[in-house]
């Protein structure tokens, strides 16, 4: 059974930083696998934030976070991190970790491409 355990959320002032982590257990990932972050703010749909390919570590970002967020992968620990800098109030949301195998490039930003999901962690950015 796959388990994704998310940590690192919290309350921070605008301009501050937070680092989210997501540890995966229960399976390994193939070269076509990826681990990703999505977020959902109150009253809004869940949206793509960032993803990183298991093979080669190629990363992709939503335009809204590009240049401020950095995703990284520790393959030895099956853990993905999201370093969030220069946080804005509009970054406030519940952040979800997701993972899966067999994810084609054109689908990396799609929620339905990911088979496994973590429990979510709250990020609140005060102005």
Gist of the model:
The protein has 127 residues and is mainly β.
What does this structure look like?
With 127 residues, the protein is mainly β. It has strands spanning 3-7, 10-13, 18-25, 34-40, 47-53, 59-61, 69-74, 79-84, 93-100, 116-117, 121-126. Strands 2, 4, 5, 6, 9, 10 and 11 form a seven-stranded mixed beta sheet that branches. The N and C termini lie far apart (40 Å). The model has no long low-confidence stretch (mean pLDDT 94).
What tags apply to this protein structure?
four-stranded antiparallel sheet, mainly beta, 127 residues
Mean pLDDT comes to 94
Please state roughly what percent of the residues sit in beta strands, choosing from under 5%, 5-15%, 15-25%, 25-35%, 35-45% or over 45%.
over 45%
- Main beta sheet: 7 strands, mixed
How many DSSP helices? Answer: 0
Report helical residue fraction.
Answer: under 10%
The number of strands is 11
- Global Rg: 14 Å
Task: Please state the overall shape, judged from the principal axes of the Cα atoms.
Answer: globular
Query: What structural class do helix, strand and pairing data support?
Result: mainly beta
Distance between the amino and carboxyl termini: 40 Å
Order of helices and strands: EEEEEEEEEEE
Task: Identify low-pLDDT runs.
Answer: none
């Amino acid at each position: 059974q796959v388990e994704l355990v998310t940590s690192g959320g919290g309350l921070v002032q605008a301009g501050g930083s937070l680092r989210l982590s997501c540890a995966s257990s229960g399976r390994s990932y193939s070269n076509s696998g990826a681990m990703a972050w999505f977020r959902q703010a109150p009253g809004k749909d869940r949206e793509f934030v960032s993803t990183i390919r298991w093979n080669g570590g190629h990363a992709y970002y939503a335009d809204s976070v590009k240049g401020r967020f950095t995703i990284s992968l520790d393959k030895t620990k099956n853990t993905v991190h999201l370093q969030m800098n220069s946080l804005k109030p509009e970054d406030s949301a519940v952040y979800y970790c997701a993972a899966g195998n067999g994810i084609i490039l054109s689908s990396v930003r799609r929620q339905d491409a990911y088979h496994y999901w973590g429990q979510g962690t709250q990020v609140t950015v005060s102005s």
